[in-house]
Design goal:
With 124 residues, this protein is an alpha+beta fold. The protein has a domain at 42-107. 40% of the residues lie in helices and 14% in strands. The protein has helices at residues 5-8, 20-39, 70-75, 77-84, 96-107, and strands spanning 43-46, 53-60, 63-67. The protein has a three-stranded antiparallel sheet. A hairpin with a 6-residue loop joins strand 1 (43-46) and strand 2. The longest helix is centred in the N-terminal third of the chain and has 20 residues, at 20-39. The radius of gyration is 21 Å and the shape is elongated. It starts with a helix and ends in a 17-residue tail after the last helix.
Length: 124
């Protein structure tokens, strides 16, 4: 017999229903974590070929996070070529022209090459 979460009282994380201050503290920390990991350190870079704008973060010399917008995906000529040939752009590892633009952004100091040296959220 399977019991529902509601009837068993079990959850993956405590809800802190009996401690509103703790519940609010957890919510605030979760909000900060989301902002830090999803938005923190992102820098806008424009592809020097097709002018698609993406958000980029370097956390190490070998790790780069790229957030594509719908507009950037639509205007990227390399991804468009994949779509037109019947391929799936989501399976394309990267756009070589955008990678070159990111490398240029790092070389020009627009994007820090190793991630932030100071973190206003106190994560470092």
């Amino acid at each position: 017999m399977t019991r529902s979460v509601e009837s068993s009282g079990w959850a993956k994380a405590p809800a802190f229903d009996d401690d509103p201050a703790r519940r609010e503290s957890v919510r605030e920390h979760t909000r900060r974590d989301r902002a830090h990991y999803l938005d923190g350190g992102l820098h806008e870079i424009e592809c020097r070929s097709c002018h698609a704008c993406v958000l980029v973060k370097k956390t190490s010399p070998s790790q780069t996070s790229v957030q594509w917008t719908a507009g950037a995906r639509a205007s990227c000529s390399e991804l468009r070529s994949v779509r037109e040939s019947g391929g799936n752009p989501a399976m394309t590892p990267t756009c070589s022209r955008l990678s070159a633009s990111i490398d240029h952004g790092v070389a020009e100091g627009i994007i820090p090459p190793h991630g932030p040296t100071e973190d206003p959220d106190g994560y470092l």
